[in-house]
Write a structure and sequence with these properties.
By secondary structure, the chain is α/β, with parallel strands linked by helices. Strands 3-9-8-7-6-4-5 form a 7-stranded mixed sheet, sandwiched between helices. The protein has a 4-stranded antiparallel sheet with strand order 1-12-13-10, covered by helices on one side. Strands 2-11 form a two-stranded parallel ribbon. It starts with 8 loop residues before the first helix and ends with a helix.
């Protein structure tokens, strides 16, 4: 099951042309283009996929987000970045005429100490999505299949398929954890990668840490495993739930992290990936991850790692917002999924496009999905004021 990385850069570019073209646009631009296409075709659902019944409802014409009352759509941290990160960013702007290799190296060393790995086990990038997509381009340029949970965050899967690979979705268990036994059974001679989002998106659920660790420890000797931990800091156990120790152990594991969520730096674009040296070198052949990160962003990330009180305060406020939303849903008799992230998924008993039309009228933006023969709303946690706007809208829509 070894991946052949000996293709020349020209051959790789030829095979990955579709995926490379897709990556020229931001995820928001691609999503917006799909919304526009669905509007033209008058399609209530945005995607066609014979392998999975996971889909997203087409929202109404997307508003200028600066005009909404509650921006609860992208799982952003409404409290970030921290004041220390903002100050570091502004100070670093004055040195914008210089490349930032020195400051990036210092940040990598700090991350290595935090994660208990060596600097050679770290690859930086402009957000974790960029890193997982580049990984897909390397692994699937010459075919093969990726195994993932279903539903899951689809960025890596989309790029794997665009690069020439196939997808083997494995339905989550009844309690919305990854079905590790079924994932293992799905491995075949063409499996290039297993992809696990933990906590998962869009379900907000966490797979049992010990079971996942044992699975990764054992299975990564056969097939590389990519663990997307974008929301791990927001889980109840925090970094205790991480699979990063397996990287230090020498296992063929990728662990992706981002500064977009708990650190509140979604617009500044920085993340990193842990992995074994050989695997990271293969990905570095097609990308210079650090080249896409600005010096001020590096400075902000460095300051954010040191601002532990800010992170703890954010997590506390987000937890309060979840409790507020839980009570709202409890009072309405809605069986939501307990969240290990900064968003909540709950079922809606109406067409998802109709629900979105109604809630957008109240200047509240969320997302709606369809899977397992059920329609769902995914609401990000905002400030208490935003959640009150959300509650007012829900109380009028879901009577």
């Amino acid at each position: 099951m070894k991946t052949n990385y000996r293709n020349s850069r020209r051959e790789w570019l030829k095979k990955g042309a579709i995926a490379a073209g897709a990556l020229a646009f931001s995820p928001y631009e691609l999503w917006s283009a799909k919304v526009h296409e669905s509007h033209i075709d008058q399609q209530p659902l945005m995607f066609k996929n014979a392998l999975s019944n996971f889909n997203e409802f087409t929202p109404p014409k997307f508003p200028d987000l600066s005009t909404v009352k509650a921006r609860l759509v992208w799982n952003e941290n409404p409290y970030g970045p921290s004041s220390k990160a903002s100050a570091a960013f502004q100070q670093a702007v004055t040195e914008g005429n210089h490349y930032s290799w020195g400051s990036l190296g210092k940040l990598v060393k700090k991350i290595a100490r935090k994660e208990g790995v060596e600097t050679k086990n770290i690859m930086m990038g402009p957000g974790s999505s960029d890193l997982l997509e580049k990984t897909a381009m390397v692994y699937f340029g010459d075919g093969g299949n990726v195994i993932s949970g279903d539903p899951c965050y689809m960025s890596l899967v989309h790029v794997a398929k665009a690069s020439g690979g196939d997808w083997k979705p494995i339905k989550l268990t009844k309690d919305f954890q990854h079905d590790l036994d079924a994932m293992e059974a799905a491995i075949d001679s063409n499996t290039k990668l297993i992809y696990i989002t933990n906590p998962n998106n869009p379900t907000a659920t966490l797979t049992d840490t010990k079971k996942l660790y044992d699975f990764c420890d054992r299975i990564s000797d056969k097939v590389p495993i990519f663990i997307d931990e974008a929301y791990i800091e927001l889980s109840a156990g925090g970094l205790k739930n991480s699979m990063a120790p397996l990287v230090a152990k020498g296992k063929n594991i990728f662990v992706a992290r981002t500064f977009s969520k708990i650190y509140g730096m979604a617009g500044l674009r920085i993340g990193y990936m842990l992995g074994n040296e050989k695997s990271l070198k293969a990905i570095n052949q097609i990308t210079r991850g650090g080249m896409g990160i600005t010096g001020p962003t590096i400075a902000a990330a460095n300051a954010s790692l040191d601002d532990v009180p800010f992170i703890e305060d954010c997590k506390s406020k987000i937890t309060s917002a979840k409790k507020f939303t839980y009570k709202l849903l409890d009072d309405k008799g809605i069986k939501y999924l307990p969240s290990e992230t900064n968003f909540i998924l709950f079922p809606i008993e109406m067409d998802g496009d109709e629900f979105l039309d109604k809630i957008y009228e109240y200047k509240v933006v969320v997302r709606a999905f369809k899977f397992w023969d059920q329609n769902w709303c995914r609401v990000s946690m905002g400030t208490l004021e935003e959640m009150e706007y959300f509650a007012a809208a829900i109380n009028k829509i879901l009577v």
